[in-house]
Amino acid sequence: MSDAVNKEEHEKNDFIRHIIREDVANDKYEQIITRFPPEPNGYLHLGHVKSICLNFGIAKEFGGICNLRFDDTNPTAEKQDYIDNIKNDVKWLGFEWADKPYYASDYFDQLHEWAIKLIKQGDAYVDLQTPEQIRETRGSFNEPGKPSPQRDASVEDNLQRFDDMKNGKYAEGEAVLRAKIDMASPNMNMRDPVIYRVMKQAHHQTGDKWCIYPMYDYAHPLSDAIEGITHSICTLEFEDHRPFYDWAVEKVGAEGGIKYPPHQYEFSRLNVDHTMTSKRKLKQLVDEGIVTGWDDPRMPTIAGMRRRGYTPEGLRDFCERVGVTKSDSVVDFRLLEFSIRQSLENTTARGMAVLKPLKVTITNFEEALSEWESLKDEGVNARWDEAEKTLWINQPKHPNVDMGEREIPFTETIYIDQGDYELEPPKGYKRLSPEKSEIRLRNTYVLAVTEHVLDDAGNVVELKATIDKTTLGKNPEDRKVKGVIHWVSATKGVPATVRMYEHLFSAENPSAVPDLHDALNPNSLTVLEAVVEPSLANAEAGSRFQFEREGYFVADAEEHTADKPVFNQIVSLRDNYKPE
Ligand code: ATP
Ligand code: MG
């Protein structure tokens, strides 16, 4: 069975789509409406990618719509910059929200009116206890909570106090509005949860209009209701909040203008090994300067993954493979890399980059090149520049020749990778060593090392070699030469900064490490002074490549220029890992 078929089977069977399919079959709704509701208190991360793919994906599959709604009920932690980046990230992933972006703050007037309605119905009251008292009187799992002294205050008193809250007469922590439900409920979320609090804080959308703000648990179901959300899909930690979700929707009721009661469905959050998916902790890394910013290529943020060169196609494929369930699990990071790698294989141009350069002087270069044209293979397309003593060789950018060609300069001095010449080669080593002098240089001649030059410490610092002039694009007739290595012209190649990455966290489950710093991998970034062929240096910032034999790399979106190329490693070329 092909992967594609497998994936389809998977989609068909996830429990949320199963529910929706039934609802569609029963004509339960006019249209399926989902929402993605981030709080703009940080940048989106890999976990959000799963939620985005699920919510927007479902809307698309069922001919519905998905709203982007900012759950902006806590102005202290929120910023316009986060809003802008969240919008950008969702678009980059390939999704479109219906209409315009929505904000929970768009509904503050309505939510406030409904709070008054709840007070009038006897379903809410203003509590004047201190936050500590409220905490202490909530009780515990075995013990019911104690009612607040204000729990049975009159509607008039509550309306007056709530109005005073709104008018700034209470300081933060002096008064809250609580839903009046059940202080003995086995579900702690139903023990008269706080639904409004005083916060003397300007808001990024509503300015100074409010000094009371609704709590998330109150704003969320009602925002869903206002927008006519049919399926409110969230992560499992909200399962215990569902009774309150339903309570709020029911108490506001049809007369509040609610069209369909929205329903909440929970799925298990995405966890990936060596990865942290918590905006708060990622913010700590940014604030402490442990990473260069939210878009540091090591960050599991969408901005970071984009800068790292990950593709939207790869991320979407990853989410499809992960699927949607109710059971908690940790996904293998290599699956993510598998999806990314797969998305790059047929789409990225190839080029040669030497990451750890070792100089090679070709001692017979001029003599060998004097006959290049008569001895070359018919298939070789090249031109000789006499002034520059350079052979410019045309090569396709990819086995799929539709991607076009590039010109590779071949000169008297070149670089090969230090790892391709070993003084003491391990068993089975197929590249160059004192015992094995010959190898094919990719796209050009067969090279034979004649001498190595050592420094005082005994390290190889240069090779001298000759080329076999009869081998431009073809094999020698009298012998078999094993192995092919890549190379870059020492004079026409361009020095480049190449950043190699490992996991940002060495801990498999960084969230479980009490001090974040102890979970970090000190080797997460290695900066190499590499040399790349001109076609790579001339690439546009943000374009992705396969560096032959080295892996996939992206020209850094912020720093790359033709004069000072900067590349980030996206992912290695291969891995033994195979998804199930
Ligand atoms: P964080 O703790 O990182 O702030 P959050 O859940 O509080 O995460 P929100 O901005 O409130 O962040 O989340 C928006 C949506 O993304 C929610 O519906 C939430 O359930 C979902 N989401 C967040 N993290 C994950 C995850 N790891 N896997 C799947 N969905 C997630
Ligand atoms: Mg949150």
Task: Explain what you see.
The chain is an alpha/beta fold. The chain folds into three domains: 108-214, Alpha-Beta Complex (Glutamyl-tRNA Synthetase, domain 3); 270-349 and 494-580, Glutamyl-tRNA Synthetase, domain 2, CATH 1.10.1160; 353-486, Ribosomal Protein L25, Chain P, CATH 2.40.240. Helix content is 28%, strand content 22%. Helix 3 crosses helix 12, helix 8 (216-226) crosses helix 9 (242-252) and helix 12 packs across helix 13 (333-345). The longest helix is centred in the first third of the chain and has 16 residues, at 46-61. It is elongated and about 105 Å long. The protein binds adenosine-5'-triphosphate and magnesium ion. Residues 484-556 form the tRNA synthetases class I (E and Q) anti-codon binding domain. Residues 32-332 form the Glutamyl/glutaminyl-tRNA synthetase class Ib catalytic domain.
In short:
It catalyses: tRNA(Gln) + L-glutamine + ATP = L-glutaminyl-tRNA(Gln) + AMP + diphosphate. The chain is an alpha/beta fold and 580 residues long.
Q: Keywords, please?
A:
alpha/beta, 26 strands, nucleotide-binding, Glutamyl-tRNA Synthetase, domain 3, binds adenosine-5'-triphosphate, Ribosomal Protein L25, Chain P, aminoacyl-trna synthetase, 17 helices, Ribosomal_bL25/Gln-tRNA_synth, 580 residues, 7-stranded mixed β-sheet, single chain, Glutamyl-tRNA Synthetase, domain 2, EC 6.1.1.18, elongated, binds magnesium ion
